[in-house]
Each structure stands twice: as structure tokens, then as C-alpha cells.
Amino acid sequence: MTYLAADVNELALSIFGVVVAITLIVTYFASKRVASATDFWAAGRGLTGVQNGFAIAGDYMSAASFLGIAGLIFLFGFDGFLYSVGFLVAFLTVLFLLGERMRNSGKYTIADVLSFRMNERPARAAAALGTLSVAGFYLIAQMVGAGVLINALVGIGFELAVILTGAFMIIYIVAGGMLATSWVQIIKAVLLMSATIVLSLFVLGKVGWNPIDLFTEARAQSPEGDAYLKPGLFLASPIDTVSLGLGLVLGTAGLPHILMRFFTVPDAKAARSSVMWAVILIGGFYVMTTCLGFGARAILGEGATEAVGTGGNLAAPLLAEEVGGGAGTFGGDLFLAIIAAVAFATILAVVAGLVISASGAVAHDVWSNVIRHGRDSEREEVWVAKIAAVSIGAIAIAIAVIGGSGLNVSFMVGLAFAVAASAIFPALLLALVWRSFNTSGAVTGVLVGVFSSIALVIISPTVWPGPDSEGGALGFYDLANPGIVSIPLGFIGCWLGTMLARETKAERTFDELYVRSETGLGAEAGTGLTLTGRRDAAKESAAVTATIPHP
Amino acid sequence: MTDTHGAGAARDPGRDEGTTGAGPLSAETGAAGPEHHPEIDWVAAERSPEFRELVRKRRSFVVPCTIFFLVWYFGFIVLAGYAPDFMGREFLVDGLTVGYVLALSQFVMVWGLSAWYLRRADREFDPLAERAAARAREAGDRPRRFRRDGETAADPGRVAPQ
User: Fold this and answer.
1) More confident residue, A427 or A328
2) Model's pTM, two decimal places?
3) A89 CB near a chain B CB, below 8 Å?
4) Does B54 share its domain with B82?
5) What ipTM is given for this predicted complex?
6) Sign of the Cα pseudo-torsion (A106, A107, A108, A109, in order)
């Protein structure tokens, strides 16, 4: 890593400082306005479609997207871009199947929707298990990634970087709940989009404004030649590629921290317009990964292969340094520092979203409804949520620090998507559309989904025996991405569990959930809180009367 | 328009015992799950022609669109997996491959389908959903007049005297 000095990069550190200061100021103001549990979990349901669209983009695009995909394209060409496509197409699943229905049916967590017509305690416990597995795997991956990147980009130590990331994320959530989290995510989305647009323009300027030249130049700079623009350099097994695609497209629709964002808007109309804004932003970003990835190959060339690190994560920062004027120049240093700060903001926004969804599973699902049978006060619930957020943050910091920078995180992100696609997505979808689905089906489906994903990832060749092995530990199974097996298993688990038990209540309540999810009749109302202020209370109560039948 | 809400109009079709965690408690505490609304006759609402029309129209849009995007996306993925040489073929100009053009077509598909769905939903599905909801609300209001003074529809414990 000759490009990046081991000592502290003051410029990057000061830009970091500015970004963090802005988010802390926003959190301070948010903390004064969060009054109720609905404010804490769902930002009072007062976000507009545009605001929530930006927040979804901020919640979704992790450092893995920004730095990881640019790196994969730099190293392996076309295969890296396959990830970009999958991450975007996934939002059609969200738009068509779950987004509006979540808004109409739920309250604070995905378990609200899953357990609506079930026996509350087992269904909630299962949903909480799914949420905590996804959020846990994803969170640890993000924290370790944060430590490695900040260490490389800014020069502060791995442990300190992990602790700082965890500390800020805890402050956002404990002080400002979902309101502060939404703000952080919106700020991050704006920063990330701006930085990517500027960087892409500089890259295009370098190749003479002809995007096609990016490909020809990148091909010329790659020792692989023609193969660089073809699939197969990174994803060598076709069936594994299909399995990956399946996991991406269905997994996003099962990510609890993304689904939770739909509780922050006033109605189904705002929920779908937030998906529209999200796909404009996320799609725009992923198109630009062409410029970042192929651009990095075209401009940095083969010589940078060692400098970008094993996963290629430093390709985008090095590209920024190069188009800014090169190493050692003021422009180069400034660009590198900005990209480092954007990467940090990216991680903060994602981990904040993950922790608030995990604390929802602990406080609202497990504590309030499994342990206390829904009899505790709103105040108690929010307190438990804050304690949970601190504890989850502390545990994640501890695992990341103990595991160290060598922890294999790429399989953890894959695991998070696999669990989301195989455990959460089937159960949620069937709860909303299949009349006969019942508690036993939901619990079986989630358990089968969670444990089959974990088991299949453990026996996958990249984990056991190890990354460089030929074939898996078990001869007949050698998939790195479990989706194609674990997703059908999740659905079969849901079906089998449903068939094994008879539950008339779940069938009778189906009509209520079905009509509610399709029409919004009876949907939870907001508190009048908005992103920047508070709406007129009288107007708000008029809106409530309109949605809920009144005596 | 059939008059399906007769016998059980005021009954909570879902929970005779009111044990799903919501019930009267949730109004006071807020810590329980989503509030149930037993004052609405959900069975009748589900059978109302307005609701059936909403579901039929939305489904006839969403199901073909979902099938289309899954086929288009997995077609792309399968080609990437099994026909790398076809995907690597140059298209129109040197450097632009079939694979990259197909990848870009996925972006266009996502934007196009989303915008189309939004248009249809705003113009067609939302008004239908409002009509179905209004119809269910009316049906829920109806039995009020049979109640004793002091009883309210919002009190699920007393809506359906057994």
C-alpha cells in the first residue's frame, strides 16, 4: 500500500470531522423532537416519498456497493457489474410484492406483519430470530469493513476505527431514534451520489467523454484481454451465478432494515413513491459503478492491482486520488480525503439502520410482546430499545475487535442476504397472500430458512475447507451462494409447517390482514412528526379519522 | 352490489377471544403489535365487489410484470453463466458487448416498470382502494344503532355481545 501513508491523513480526518459534526447536530435537534414510540421507531410516519427514497438509498448502499463493486469490476471486469444489476433489480420485488403492504399492515417491525394473524409469541420470536440473524451478520461485516477501510484511508488504527463507528451509531439511535437515523441516511445518500457523479465526470473527461473508450481502454489495460469484458472471471460456476442472482433479488425484499423504512411514511402512496425515488438514486449510482470500476482499470492499469488490496476495495479511492491530480498533489489528497469521508458516512448510515432494526426485534418483539405480552408502556419499550441498541452495538464492536481485520466478512454479507431471502421473504410474503398459512408454517419456514442458509454457507467451499480449496468439504455440494437451495427450502418449510397444524384463527383473521394490506383501512396513523418539524395536531387527527372508522 | 354483511356484521371475524395482543390494551400502551379493528366486518369487506375489483385489477398488472422482470433478469443471469462468449460478443461498436447492453437494459426495465406501476397505482388502484375502504367503513358503522347507549364501536370487548 505505497499510495497510502501509514500515518494519519489530517485532511481526511478533518473532512470526517465535518461530516460527523453535521450528523451529530442533526441528531441533537432530532432528539428534542422524538416524543413517542412511533416517533422513535418510525420517525412519526411523517417522511415524504422523496425523503424516504433518499433514506432507503442511504440505508441500502453499503460500503460494499461503493468500494466493493468498484473493486470487483477493477479486478474481474464484467462479473463485478453483475452485482450492480442484481442489487437494483431487487427493488422490483420490493415494489410489487412488499413495500405498500408493509406500510399498510405493520407498526414498528416486520414481526408486526408476520404475527398479525398468528399466535403472537412464537411468530414474533421467529421473526425476531430472522431479523437478528440478518442484522447481526450484516452488522459485523460492516464494522470489520469500516475498521479496515478507515485504517487504510485515514491511518487511524483498526480497533479505534471500529469503536468510533460503533459509538457514533449508538449515539444516533439512542438520542434520535429513526428520525436521526433517517437524517444520517439522507445526508449520506446526498454525499455518496454527489461524490460518485463528480468522480464519474472526471473519469469520463480523462477518456475523452466517450464511455465506450472506458471499455476498450480497460480491456487494453487488463492482462485478461477480451475475457475482461466477458462473464466468468470471478463467477466461474454458472449454477452459482444463478444462485447468487436469486439470493440478491429475493434477499433485498427480506432485509429487515430496508422493510422497516416503509413504516416511516404516512401511506401506501408515499411508500411506493419512495421506492421510485430509491430506484432512481440506486440505479443511477450502479450505472456509475461502470465509470468507477472500468474507469479504475482504464486509468490505474494493471500496476495498481497490488495497491487496491485483496478485495479491490481501494480501487475507488485510488482512482479519486489519480483523477484529482495524483499522489502527493493537493487535488489528489483532497479527492482521496473526500472519498474516504464519504465511505465513512456510508458505513455509519448503514450500521445505524441495521442497529435500529435489531433493537426493534429485541425491544418491540421479544421484550414487549413475547416476554411482557404487550402490557408494558410505550416509555418502557423505548427504554428497552435504547438499552438494546447500546448492547448490540457493544457486542458488534467486541466481535469485530476480537475477530480482527482478518475476519472473512464477504461470506457474512452473503449469509445476511441468504437468510433474508430464505427465512424472512417467504414467511412475510405467504403471511400476506396465503389464507391457509399459519403460526406453525411461519415458525417452521423461518427456522428452516435460517439454519439451512447457515449450514449451506458453512459447508460451502469458500468457508470450509477454505478460500483456496478445490471443491467443497462435502463432495456433492460446492455452491458458494446457497440461495438456489435454501430459498426453496424456506418455502417448503412454510408449506410443511402449515400442513402439519390446523389453526382456524389464522385463517379467519386473514381477511382483516388482506383487506388492510391492500387498501390501508385500519393502518397505523402517524404522530404529526415530520423530518423537519411537526404538523398541525388538529389536521393530523382529521387524517386519523379518515383512515380509522370512528364511532 | 350484494348485501353480504348480514349476520356477523359487527362481529370480529378474527378473534373471538381477543387474544392477539392488540385489543383494548394497545390503545393505552402502544407497546403491542398493530391495532386490530374488530368493529369492521372484514369478511364482508373482503367479499365486497369494490375490493374484488381492486385485487383483480392490481393482480392483473403486478403478476405479469413480476413474471416479466423475473424472466428478463434470470434470462440475463443464465446467459452470463452459461453463454459467456455470446455475452462477450461486440455489439455495434468495438468495446461494447452484448452483456453490457443487456445489463443496461435491466436498469431501463427497473425504471420503466416502476414508473408505469406508479402511474397505474395513482390513477387506478388508489381510487379503487379508497372505494373498497369506504364500503367497509359504512358496513362497520351500520350496526351501531343496535347498541346500548354508552357502547362504542372502538371498544372491541363490547362490540359483539355473545
Assistant:
1) A427
2) 0.89
3) yes
4) yes
5) 0.91
6) negative
